[in-house]
Specification:
It is a single chain. The protein is an alpha/beta fold. It has a single domain, classed as Rossmann fold. Helices cover 35% and strands 16% of the residues. It contains 14 helices and nine strands. A nine-stranded mixed β-sheet has the order 1-2-3-5-4-6-7-8-9, sandwiched between helices. Helix 2 runs antiparallel to helix 10 and helix 7 crosses helix 11. 55% of the residues are buried.
């Protein structure tokens, strides 16, 4: 049962049907959720942080992508016959420093086909910024039936990174495209070392924060030129964060994201302090929502507010903020392989206008991509409802079929 499915059923019990999870803002409907309910919801899905997640000594001496530790794990609610192997591996942060990153490999039931299981490197959406918010520390691996488990049933091995600072100790560099893309890329050799029946060829696929990561993987692979990389799918990719931030200051439901984004700027440039950006309730709750819980907890902490948050004047002109925006922007660099970009026309978390602008900019720079918009769909439903189309597109990549350039259509 997926985290969104689980959440919806639990929330129905709380008489708040229709709330999506994680990066979603079906929450823009201001559905009630108490802090106590959020704590119960997250605790019901949580798994303990064990010594498995501790970085070993000599981390910096290991090569990026080196497997540090593996663990068969049967505590997830996976599709029938599927199995899981947790991995700990050496990755890099946005500045290129050595970090330990955790994740999990989901393996379909049955015997691997000739050449090994085809691989999807999965990049998850916003789950929170605390260590406990790692998908591999959730019984449904956070997404569950919202795309993730259907991919397993379709016969793909899923290599699902947590991103460093989630699961592992250290700071999670939230919505930094380099940090997240490195974690995705280096999860692949580590997963192959842990699970020999994985095939060589792989695609990247991600939603929201992970959509930005998947697009960034495509950009980094332009220089890396991995012959086994076949393309990327970016669903509701977090992009043009400056404009998205402006919208969040007008929405009570999105207030907690401002704390997460202040965390992100500070994580990239520690000299930047949350008080350089936040004021009022957002600043007062910063330490709470970034440490005590994950997505639902942060959302619930702001539900009683009656006034939208106010940010400090000109905070975004600081050098740290400009670095953050620059390192969180996709669509301005060449890419390797085909790219499918998906957006929902009813998305209230990552507005489709921001995605369209990024797509048009990329097309104008000569990037070949396919773009699909889904009428009426909000953030999480876009991921869920587009999964069959994602899988069809991915199957074509493994079949060696050429990918169409949809840039002319994206300009409409």
């Amino acid at each position: 049962m997926g985290s969104r499915t689980t959440a919806r059923r639990l929330l129905a019990a709380f008489a708040i049907v229709g709330l999506g999870l994680a990066p979603a803002l079906a929450m823009a409907q201001d559905q009630p959720l108490t802090v106590q309910q959020a704590v119960k919801l997250e605790a019901g899905d949580a798994l303990p942080i064990t010594a498995f997640y501790d970085a070993p000594r000599g981390l910096a001496a290991a090569r990026p992508g080196a497997l540090l530790r593996k663990q068969a794990f049967d505590g997830y609610g996976l599709p029938a016959g599927a199995r899981a192997v947790r991995i700990l591996y050496r990755s890099k942060d946005a500045q290129g420093r050595a970090v330990a990153t955790s994740g999990v490999v989901l393996i379909p039931p049955g015997k691997a086909p000739a050449g090994g299981w085809p691989v999807i490197a999965w990049a998850h959406g916003t789950s929170g910024v605390a260590r406990s918010c790692a998908p591999s520390l959730m019984k449904d691996v956070y997404y569950g039936e919202e795309g993730l488990f259907p991919m397993v049933r379709a016969g793909y091995a899923i290599v699902a990174t947590d991103y460093h600072g989630q699961g592992t100790a250290g700071v999670h560099q939230y919505v930094n495209k380099f940090a997240q893309a490195y974690d995705v890329i280096y999860s692949i050799p580590a997963a192959r070392a842990a699970v020999p029946e994985l095939g060589r060829r792989w695609v990247a696929d991600g939603h929201s924060q992970g959509g930005m990561a998947a697009w960034s993987v495509a950009e980094l692979e332009h220089a890396r030129a991995d012959p086994n990389y076949l393309g990327a799918v970016a669903v509701a990719p977090g992009t043009r964060l400056g404009s998205v931030l402006t919208g969040m200051t007008r929405s009570l439901s999105a207030s907690f994201y401002l704390d997460y984004l202040a965390w992100a700027v500070h994580a990239r440039t520690p000299a930047f302090q949350p008080a350089d950006m936040l004021t009022g309730a957002a600043l007062d709750r910063y330490g709470d929502v970034t440490a005590k819980g994950c997505f639902y907890y942060a959302y619930a902490r702001f539900l009683g507010d009656t006034q939208p948050p106010v940010l400090k004047t000109d905070w975004d002109k600081a050098a740290a903020a400009q670095t953050f925006f620059r390192e969180s922007d996709v669509g301005r660099q060449p890419i390797a392989g085909p790219l499918l970009v998906i957006a929902g026309e009813g998305d209230r978390t990552v507005p489709i206008a921001a995605v369209r602008a990024t797509v048009k900019d990329a097309c104008a720079r000569g990037v070949a991509l396919a773009f699909r918009a889904y009428p009426g769909l909000d953030h999480d439903p876009t991921m869920e409802k587009s999964t069959p189309d994602q899988l069809a597109w991915i199957a074509d990549r493994f079949a060696g079929k050429p990918a169409a350039n949809g840039c002319p259509a994206a300009k409409s």
